[in-house]
Write a structure and sequence with these properties.
Order of helices and strands: HHHHHHHHHHHHHHHHH
Structural class: mainly alpha
Radius of gyration: 20 Å
Distance between the termini: 57 Å
Shape: globular
Helix content: over 70%
Strand content: under 5%
Number of strands: 0
Length: 391
């Protein structure tokens, strides 16, 4: 397979960033159609292995897959070009929404924002439903998810969220062992073990140092909030909701209503859900604000996922041979389902569903997504109109 250029990669992923609606799972489908079927940059076996790896790692899975495909095509500049192209459209749109959201103060605007919050209820319920079927198919993993949800419901803090991830890994190691997976051909991504070790060291060093420096250097407090959230996300973009809520709503940096309205708006956009960070960086209280805050949010929330990906790629072929390692990740993924289920109740339901009309609108959105397979953009539009009607 010939090597391409970073510009070719950028234009390809810019097209995907403008058209990839529907969330991480849909993004994986868009990538396969464009990169594997149409352009033939990689074969199906390599693509499947990349998806499996990125599902295991913390961070935004679809963006990590895109970054890996850019690496294969045009090395490090290609990886960067893929990430920028895929992220830029929704990041710009979310920043623009942050500037316009403050103008939605009349009854129609408030109705739109309330409708977007109810859309978020439907979207997260759909995510929990789908992830539970895939990641908790047996008694052991369903039980891990249940215990994780209970821990979060009675101890909703960043410490409890970390404890849940650790609990899932330990429980998975003992309860979720199966035979080793069948191995495909090596991935062949041009990342050396030396680069991998440096990336892993940077990932953990920033995780340890940023909380200390954030209290002393202006701007690093905001960067640290995004970095920690991005570093602890297992299971897809929706799982970042409770982490960001704990980082921004709990200390009063963003109001609950503004937070949920921005999250609802993010559902209407193509590209990665993590660009919700651009909105929070723009409207949040810590400096910097506006466009500079949006840039800090985007870099901060995506950086840990890219670092852990670069650190893991050189060792993935060895890692996936270990039954214990696979069992740990199964347990972690099950715990993530419980974490997201608890967030559905404690962060969304109790703050958004306050009347029979609210429940009816959220239920309608859920049925449209699950049964009718309606695109999220349509559900967002209907939710906004429904919110106006309820207002």
């Amino acid at each position: 397979m010939r090597e391409g250029s970073a510009l070719e990669v950028f234009l390809t992923f810019l097209k995907l960033g403008l058209a990839s609606f529907g969330g991480p799972i849909a993004h994986i489908g868009y990538f396969r159609e464009e990169i594997v079927v149409r352009r033939r940059w990689v074969n199906d076996a390599t693509y499947t292995d990349l998806v499996a790896l990125c599902q295991f790692l913390p961070g935004p899975a679809s963006s990590q897959v895109g970054f890996s495909l850019g690496l294969i095509r045009a090395r490090y500049w290609g990886g960067l070009a893929a990430w920028i192209g895929f992220t830029l459209p929704s990041a710009v749109l979310m920043t623009s929404f942050a500037y316009g959201a403050g103008e939605l103060s009349n009854s129609i605007g408030l109705g739109v924002l309330h409708g977007l919050k109810l859309v978020a209820v439907a979207i997260i319920a759909q995510a929990v439903w789908g992830m539970a079927g895939t990641l908790c198919p047996d008694r052991s993993r369903a039980s891990i998810a249940c215990v994780a949800a209970v821990i979060i419901l009675f101890g909703n803090s960043s410490t409890a969220q970390i404890a849940v991830i650790l609990f899932g890994g330990i429980a998975g190691f003992w309860l979720c062992r199966t035979s080793a997976p069948t191995l495909e051909q090596p991935l062949g991504i041009p990342v050396s073990r030396r680069v991998g070790i440096v990336a892993l060291a940077a990932f953990f060093a920033l995780l340890a140092i940023l909380p200390v420096l954030g209290t002393r250097v202006q701007g690093l407090e905001l960067f640290d909030a995004f970095y920690r959230s991005g570093a602890l996300v297992f299971g897809g973009g929706h799982v970042v909701l409770p982490l960001l809520s704990n980082a921004f709503v709990t200390p009063g940096w963003v109001s609950q209503d503004s937070f949920l309205a921005g999250y609802g708006a993010a559902q209407a956009l193509p590209g990665p859900l993590f660009t919700f960070a651009a909105y929070l960086g723009a409207v949040g209280k810590p400096s910097p604000h506006g466009t500079a805050g949006a840039a800090v949010g985007i870099v901060g929330i995506f950086l840990p996922g890219i670092l852990i990906l670069l650190g893991t790629l050189p060792f993935w072929d060895t890692f996936r041979r270990r039954i214990g390692a696979q069992a740990v990740m199964r347990g972690v993924n099950a715990a993530v389902v419980g974490l997201l289920g608890a967030a559905l109740y404690s962060l969304l339901w109790v703050n958004s569903v306050r009347s029979p009309g609210d429940f009816a609108l959220a239920l309608t959105g859920f049925v449209l997504l699950i049964v009718w397979r309606a695109p999220p953009l349509l559900v967002v539009i209907l939710g906004a109109l429904g919110g106006i009607a309820l207002a």
